[in-house]
Amino acid sequence: MAFLDVQNLTKTFGQTTVVKGVSFAFDKGEFISLLGPSGCGKTTILRMIAGFERPTSGSIEVDGRDITHLKPNQRQLGMVFQAYALFPNLNVGDNIGFGLKIAGMPAEQRRARIDEMLKLIGLAGFDKRYPYELSGGQQQRVALARAIAPRPRMLLLDEPLSALDAKIRVSLREEIRAIQLDLGITTVFVTHDQEEALSISDRIVVMNAGNIEQLGAPHEIYNKPATRFVATFVGQLNTIEATVLDAAARTVSIDGQAATVPALPATADNGSAVSLTLRPEVLSVGARQGNDITLSGTIADVTFLGSVIRLRITLGSNLLSLDTFNDQRTAPPARGEKVTVSLASKDLLVL
Amino acid sequence: MKTNRFWAWLTFALGAAYFIVPLLATFEFSLRMRRGTYSFDAYASVFADPYFVSSFGYSVVIGLVTIVVGVLVVVPAVYFVRLRMPWLRPFMEFITLLPLVIPALVLVYGYIRLYNSSSIIPFTGSALGTDILLTGAYVTLALPYMYRAVDNGMRTIDIGTLTEAAQIMGANQAQIIGRIILPNILVAILSGAFLTFAIVIGEFTIASLLNRPAFGPYLVGIGTNRAYEPAALAIISFIITWGAMGMINVLGRFAPRTSARTD
Ligand SMILES: Nc1ncnc2c1ncn2[C@@H]1O[C@H](COP(=O)(O)OP(=O)(O)OP(=O)(O)O)[C@@H](O)[C@H]1O
Ligand SMILES: [Mg+2]
């Protein structure tokens, strides 16, 4: 029995349908990310779960109870907003205690719960401060504490990190994940940042234009993208043009070299052109054991990223991205240098 | 450069004089009740007049009730229009500007026609009924100011997200307005309140046509019968009005926490 069960959820604004019959089911305690480009309907789905938008059709069940038509204040959910949305007239303690007060918790118990929450987010002693006296990261932590203080049945987060700077973004997302694991609270996290989704989720719903493209664990999404959209949206992707030699035997010619690929599109005829795709990390400079295809090209661009060096290499008509580890003893390759790269044909994806 | 500054100061001085000289003249005149010497006799005479005390007291009470009713009407209206029916805003703007365009005289004649003692709703039939009518008229009269003050206050906070944040934590509509929205626009409401108060204290037309013992009609009555007291009263009402305006500033500075800050 799924804890969060969304069935055929549809939302239409005027003439445009922005969520097109989305279904998913998740277990208690899972950390779920809704990932997709801007405007794909992530926020709309989250707002329907929260009760701020009325679904055009479909149903939402939490813990076996249909909440589709409940008001937001009857759903017992917690939510964290992109813009923090702390109450400016209340201090940190009263902000965290707001939901408890509404629920009628006696002052003493409330006090204890607020202190517990402050400790959890590492802001003990900040209860008398006002929101404008806090940094963005601190405000968002208070917003998180405020959301979980009343022990909601589920936690909803809508791009809670996108207003913060890069460093805090990473540390706070790890903190959110740690707290979520600690409390075992089922969490739905909306983001358009694939790295964020990959790093903290149990499962990811990849969305595009109101539809689910793929649903799976981070490694499944990354390693076995179900569609071309997922492959390009999640992580980097290279494309190589090849010619089919024998469709039945799945052999192709890449830059004049024959290779056997794991799969070919059903429409591929002998002699037709196909696009093969591969991740930057499966390419290596020079030969490597297990790599059966070797290609030679020219370095078009070098990006030094610290521990990793990203090369862009032109191979005939193809431009490939390739990641190598930085070697402290040698200088990175230079632009215009001739290189050979190798890859294993089994790593090629046909989308 | 020097001449520039000279002209700037001259303009300023002329402007200030235009405003201050009559005030000083009135003040000086108000001190001349006793022959040959300056005195506060006129003021003493004003304060000793039982009608001054009663009419002023009456207007203060009506003013306070007007403020409360105005806040109760305007705050939820502005809130819901901003939140749920933003397309109604131009209409609201227009409606709230009408009291500035339509003379109070028209309003009060309308009232008298509609609510006279032989009508179905005879508000003017009793003193209390007329007081209610008067308060209603003042709420209308103050609407342009109250609406703009509250609307400005709500502009500075993200009422949509704050509402949702409170809602998801279980708060109902009344709790949201009472605990989140109102405290955050308190300063704006206060400024609207003081403007309302200043209007009510000096209003003549409606109070006199409805025949209520308000401060405005009292002022005018004194003005036609006495020589020095009106000058003293003018100075007193000037101080009251400007006191109210000053309070807006003071409270605005004293209550930074209750107002939303965007930094
Ligand atoms: N209240 C509304 N009225 C009309 N259209 C809306 C409304 N809310 C959202 N939309 C439209 O629905 C689509 C999906 O919006 P949504 O906010 O769900 O996208 P999103 O995936 O969260 O994007 P982002 O990453 O930019 O936040 C957008 O095209 C948006 O313009
Ligand atoms: Mg969004």
How does this structure look, described?
The complex is a heterodimer of chains A (351) and B (263). Chain A has 8 helices and 20 strands. Chain A has helices at residues 42-50, 92-102, 107-120, 136-148, 166-183, 194-200, 218-223, 228-233, and strands at residues 4-13, 16-26, 31-35, 57-62, 65-66, 77-80, 154-158, 187-191, 203-208, 211-216, 238-246, 251-254, 257-260, 273-278, 284-285, 293-304, 308-315, 318-325, 338-343, 349-350. In chain A, helix 2 (92-102) packs across helix 3 (107-120). By secondary structure, chain B is mostly helical. In chain B, 78% of the residues lie in helices and 0% in strands. Chain B contains 12 helices and no strands. In chain B, helix 1 (2-30) crosses helix 12. The complex binds adenosine-5'-triphosphate (ATP) and magnesium ion (MG). Residues 42-43 of chain A line the site of magnesium ion.
Based on the model shown, name its key terms.
heterodimer, A: alpha+beta, Rossmann fold, OB fold (Dihydrolipoamide Acetyltransferase, E2P), 2 domains, 20 strands, elongated, B: 263 residues, mainly alpha, 0% strand, disordered C terminus, binds adenosine-5'-triphosphate, binds magnesium ion
